[in-house]
Specification:
Layout lengths: L5 E4 L9 H10 L4 E7 L11 H8 L5 E7 L4 H10 L3 E5 L7 H10 L3 E6 L9 H5 L6 E5 L15 H10 L4 E5 L7 H7 L3 E4 L1 H4 L4 H18 L1
Parallel strand pairs: 1-8, 2-3, 3-4, 4-5, 5-6, 6-7, 7-8
The protein binds ribulose-5-phosphate.
Ribulose-5-phosphate binds next to strand 2, strand 8 and helix 8.
Length: about 230
């Protein structure tokens, strides 16, 4: 049996004007987590939501809010996101080389689960110290598109990173994000990903619940075959 499958619809593709009802709809259709994309308009060329929106959503759900911080200064976000009720806090390794130990410590102190994300062009070796340290992160997010926007094309070349990570860390949560849907999930699942973020393929489907269930079955099926 592998690491538990977690299907996390990316709320970036939801109707932000109806965020609470969109979140409840996804949970009622079988989502495990809600993926929240925090973008600062600097680390990535897009600006989305921040702690105030997480705080508002938290009033409507007890669900795991899987927050992906696409920001240049993640340390500045730890306190506000903790107070707002974030569950997971995933920061980018590209901007945390100097202070990841402090970051992880503070994220845990605020009751959140730390994760580290890598852009498609970043060597996967850069996350090893964060997974193996005394105070490790609990998830690695392998970006399968360039961060910044939903609806992009899945980059299959990123799968090598997932394979390497799964071989090295059999019980680690490995998340993939970007371009995941019915036509790309099998390759990600057989590479070893167990946390699946999917935005446009879920929100754009006529039956989003069927897509969520298909994503889960693919992860579970791949784990049984390994
Ligand atoms: O992090 C993201 C963009 O930076 C989004 O979560 C991601 O792209 C999901 O959207 P889609 O499934 O439509 O590709």
């Amino acid at each position: 049996m592998g690491v538990a499958a977690k299907i996390a619809p990316s709320m970036l593709s939801s109707d932000f004007a109806n965020l609470a009802s969109e979140a409840k709809r996804m949970l009622s259709l079988g989502a495990d987590w809600l993926h929240m994309d925090i973008m600062d308009g600097h680390f990535v060329p897009n600006l989305t939501i921040g702690a105030p929106v997480i705080e508002s959503l938290r009033k409507h759900t007890t669900a795991y809010l899987d927050c992906h911080l696409m920001v240049t200064n993640p340390l500045d976000y730890v306190d506000p996101m903790g107070k707002a009720g974030a569950s997971g806090f995933t920061f980018h390794v590209e901007v945390s080389k100097e202070n990841w130990q402090e970051l992880v410590q503070k994220i845990k102190a605020k009751g959140m689960r730390p994760g580290v994300a890598v852009k498609p062009g970043t060597p996967i070796e850069e996350v090893y110290p964060l997974v193996e340290g005394e105070n490790p992160v609990e998830m690695v997010l392998v970006m399968t598109v360039e961060p910044g926007f939903g609806g992009q094309k899945f980059m299959p070349e990123t799968m090598e990173k997932v394979q390497v990570l799964r071989k090295k860390y059999p019980s680690l949560d490995i998340e993939v994000d970007g371009g995941l849907g019915p036509s790309t999930i099998d390759v990600a699942a057989s590479a070893g990903a167990n946390c699946i973020v999917a935005g446009s393929s879920v929100f754009g489907a006529s039956e989003p619940g069927q897509v969520i269930s298909l994503l889960r079955k693919s992860v579970q099926g791949a784990q049984q075959n390994n």
